Amino acid sequence: MSEALCGPSNPLQQFKQQTSLDRTLQQDRLLSHRSPAYGFRSPDPNAGVLDAEFEAFQAGVPLSDLPQLQSFHRQQPDFTGPAQTPSWAADFQRMHIAPPPMQQQHLQQAAPSTAGWAQGFRNHIDQYAPRAQQSAPVSPLAFQQRARFGYSGFQNDLAQTTPFQATQQSKGKEPVYEQFDEAAFERAFDLARDDVELNFGAESVMMGSSQSEVLEADDTRLVRDETSRPDLGRDQLPDGLGHYHNDVPYALEQQDHSEKTEQPSPYQDDDALAATAQELLEKVEHNTTDKFRNSQFLGLMRKLRDREMRVEGDKMVETNVSTGSSLPKPPLTHSPHDSGYVSGSSSPLSLDSYHFDTHICKIPGCDVDHTFDHWESPAASTASPESVLKGTSTLTPLFDNTEQRPSPLALPTASEAAVDTRPPDYGIPAHEQDADPGRIHPADGQAVVDLLNDRAADIGTWPDDTLSDSAPHSPLEDGRPPFYGDLRALHGERSVNSDLSDMLYGHDGSLEAPVRWVKEPVYGSSKE
Amino acid sequence: MLEYRTAGFNPYAVKYSPFFDSRLAVSAGANFGLVGNGRLFVLNLTSNGIVCERYYETQDCLFDTAWSEQHENQILTAGGDGSIKLFDVGVQGEFPVAGWQEHGREVFCVHWGLVDKSRFLSSSWDGTVKIWMPERKESVMTLPVHSCVYSAEFSPHHPDILTAVSRDSHLRVYDLRTKASAQNHMTLAVPIHAAPKVQQPSMGGLGKTGSLGPTECLTHDWNKYRDSVLATAGVDGVIRTFDLRQPSGPVNLLPGHEYAVRKVSWSPHLSDVLLSASYDMSCRVWTDGSNVDQGGNGVGLGREMGRMDRHTEFAMGVDWCLFGAEGWCASCAWDERVLVWDVREFMRAG
Lengths: 528, 350
What we know:
The structure holds 2 protein chains of 2 kinds. Helices cover 47% and strands 2% of the residues of chain A.
């Protein structure tokens, strides 16, 4: 619920939650054949079926060879239609992981949908271009929320409801759920099945490797896997599935994409980010003060809007518009091999539980695990331990615009008073200046230096009267300042010190009193 | 005015140490916190200006930080990856001494209990406030808010009372002594956008109700002297003060900031003075008009007392110095600068 309220829900984040759930119990049950009714007041009649079926599936035994299970099949309403093929996909369908009513319910839960939400989705399909949102007032923070998570595609626009609408929905009447279009669902299933049959050879390898995923997959996950086949275009989806698909964790798509070499998603991401940047800029465009015109952050926003910059993984990179290719190249799935980012020392990452597909780079000779490179969302960055810190963005200043603007170190007043307004003939002309190089002798003042060095050597043994003269407000009881005290007195007051001591040791008067700049030596003002 | 440059990192929060008068912590993120690493700076005020004593790198941006009230060397950070980390300045090395990962989204606020100093809290975009003890690996308690919680704080007057403000424009008060019922310890939910009891003449463009309707509330702070008074501020740029004895709406409105207010902080020295940092790149000092000496008689109209315009990007954090002079404070902004300054320098007559 809060996900929907808090701006764009991040599908990757949700997916991460799924994977990071403690599934030990579940797996325990699968492996050890414990009684399914154990611990539950109302035992699930289907629970026992699964285990045997799964075992059979895992062993490669066709399901029809398990005669004792057939009776269960007939009891169940068959929602997937008759299975025509002996493919593994059909096996999946015949496995009664959940009866259809539950399926339907789960769909509704998975999508925090209302009728308005569905409408929004259709609208979005119609006008795919990024659009301004008419939701809650845009704050820079809201922008940031979207920016941090906005580049995962168009889902965000839909998730973006104002909190007040959402509250009304939850408090008011029951949300109107879309009627589940069973026919459309089956159509999509058929499509998916055909698709699966075509790619059977290749896919089965994949499934083998991610079998453990399938183990823990609940009913919907199976459907998701099939409906998110890349070949099944998003726009071909019937409505009932379309909603559904929209809520599929993006990561599942990532799973598919990681096998291909390019992803369509970054373009959508850029669109979303550019749209939000645009929105923010519109918000401040009436403000023409110097500060806002020179703002580095707003400059970055402009660049994001104009697509001169985009987010790539954990970095912000300039898109090279100047190279002439106005259309950006297909983004690399891999980071450059010499990027130095994570790739070099990926051992902690490959051990990471989040990276279930251990993708190995297909470039010959490169056996580096690039898994991390595929996780372009910040969610991925949560996965990695502290040890990957070094060398990401901190080493290279990402948009160091220090050349374009005055150094922030300089005080505003100081940077303004830099114009030389003196007349050209100001001062003594160079040829008239007395140049007497012999006048300065290297040995000049050496005596003073010697004397000072001499004094510094036995500075602790100065006569008492000298000390008390130089440090008139000695803070110590015996009138003898500490060792550092006399040095400070000799060097005279320091402006920084006066502020600081004022802060640390107090000043006179209340907050309403005017500032009285301290002119006495350091410890003088506060001890009265 | 002292200055420190957090090169390459855009600060999000600055906090004075409650133990040392010269120690500051600044949490920051690269790329304005959009992507990239975070860094925690531990700064020291020395006679040579501000010097970085330690810094710690983190995987994701650090949105907030809080000094431990128990241990003078320990600092909490709130991470963009949902993690909370505890660093110890006294321990060598670049890693935290403890860490907690329970929040599902960005942790946006951490705050150490001021009365019961064995606990701290965190609030997150995942819509929860969690209460922790540094010795435990899991959170002690989770308070669902069901809306992005931008800021949560323990009361400085009572160990079991805490407040949270969230995206849905409500100030929620939790009393941990109550039963864990359906209310989840929530005892009060004050609508921040409600019309104030007393109409104020200087409402400007805010209309009769003094409100443009509900907007996200980004920050709040407990008054350190008056135990039922809080201030909130948010996207509409208006700072509101509330008295929990009168929970129907705000007591006082302080309009002036042009854009959203990111942080408010009551003075530790004066009961009527507060400081704010805003996206309009300014930090401002306010009085809520309650100063008895100035005829406020406990109520009255607030006003802006001064503003500091030195920051050149969005001002993100302010904090008062607890020690010494009562006007000293620190502010940080996305211009990669931390400024330590005296508000009296920027005070206007009137």
